Amino acid sequence: MALLERLYELTPTEAALAIDLASGRTLAQAAKAREVSVNTVRTHLRAVFQKTGTRRQSELVRLLLTGPASLGAAARAGGPRPIE
Fold this sequence. Notes:
This protein has 84 residues and is an all-alpha fold. The chain is 68% helix and 0% strand. It is built from six helices and no strands. The protein has helices at 2-8, 12-22, 27-34, 38-52, 57-66, 71-76. The longest helix is centred in the middle third of the chain and has 15 residues, at 38-52. It is globular, with a radius of gyration of 12 Å.
């Protein structure tokens, strides 16, 4: 999560939402887990889109799984890798 915060200047809440979406959760599931409304989650998602340069959830997930953060590779390797 800290890696996403540093790479994309996301807040902890935004980074957690991005991870939830990359993990396959829906907006409704993310909202329920945080005990907030879906509209609140959508507001956070808009900020994530702006900061990551994406426009759709599918673009965001692709970026997270294959881009600089490489959540997919980090998960296979046992966790996030530090930025060098």
